[in-house]
Amino acid sequence: MRVLIVNTSEKTGGAAVAANRLMEALKNNGVKAKMLVGDKQTGQITVVPLPWKRALKRHFLWERLVIFFHLRFQKKHLFEIDIANSGSDITSLPEFREADVIHLNWINQGMLSLSSIRKILRSGKPVVWTMHDLWPATGICHYARTCSSFRTVCHNCQLLPLNGSADDLSHKIWKRKKQLYHASNIHFVTCSRWLEDQAKQSSLLTGQRISSIPNPIDTRVFCPSDRKEARLHAGLPADGRVLLFVSQKVTDERKGVGYFIDAVNRLADIHPDLAKTTSVAVLGANSEQVCQSLRVKSYPLGYVSDDRMITSIYNSADVYVLPSLEDNLPNTIMESMACGVPSVAFRVGGIPEMIDHRRNGYLANFKDAADLAEGIRWVLLDADRDALRDACLKKVGHNYSQQSVAMKYIEVYNELIALKRYII
Description:
Elements: E1 2-9, H1 14-27, E2 32-39, E3 47-49, H2 53-70, H3 94-98, E4 101-104, H4 114-122, E5 127-131, H5 169-181, E6 186-190, H6 193-201, E7 209-212, H7 227-234, E8 241-249, H8 257-270, H9 272-276, E9 278-285, H10 287-291, E10 297-302, H11 307-316, E11 319-322, H12 331-338, E12 343-346, E13 361-364, H13 369-382, H14 385-399, H15 402-423
Parallel strand pairs: 1-2, 1-4, 2-3, 4-5, 5-6, 6-7, 8-9, 8-11, 9-10, 11-12, 12-13
């Protein structure tokens, strides 16, 4: 079986990381998998870049310009909206022609347009589309937050000036997606049961096949290691406790960095003795901005792409904190757990499927910085460290191993291939 995984980037962003890991999981389980990307960043021979790099940039710029116009030339929400009005036709590529299954992932920002996807569907090849967020099931947004319009019909979009209109950009793209999905042979896959539930509520996906399969992780890379050696490698203090916060861009409002800062500073005020022996490591772009707001010793680590260095950083930590305000199935929590490090996060999105409260981590009440601080305190002072570690490793091994996830996807591929033969 030959599978072509399509994603905008090879490495940048959670969806790219997940798509790359899926490719490796499939290859390790007998599938000839390749990845087609717009932005190739390594020398991996099974990752193929689009041959039209300049065209990709033009597609990206044209889409942003159209969105910018509809935002009345305001930058706010400019990168929270995607309309897929411009993208590449991949159906002529040899990698596409030789594939038995086309597996779409995050294909925004100039990679594929809705017209490109229509050509893929008309090719007759089975299509799997892994949803890393809600965009395939909405008009233009990736996360609906408090909006419920996607359940009926997108309009009056909150991301557009003056909350849009009845026939605004979100409604126009919603109608195009509705036409695209009609009588299509797509199997949608969500990475969490939470996102599956949201997708099934979308009027765009009524009657479509939707199932939930988590992202995989390579436990040969992300695994426990000696803490002292890890801290030496990561440049973190050998003694004391370390809290960790990770995000591709740590100032991303959706990742809840404000609640993280509030919780850490609350701990410093209420438990000054704990604060004296505790430091914070912040991994991701703009980490210096976060560290400047903390009242404990902190280490801005910047953006790191090397998996082994990232693993050392996780293994340096006593607790990982991610107060996302909306999230699917965060790779970072999975990575932390695979290293035996418990996580503290809000009870939101797909996170409760990962964290079992007070067994392998702590689920704080939504947008409650005081409870987030209590969760951190509980992990550091009250919890059984060995029991938490063992529970983390058991959860990852049972739910997110390469073999477990690969077998579920292979079952989906085989069903689609069999259906295609039946129809023919």
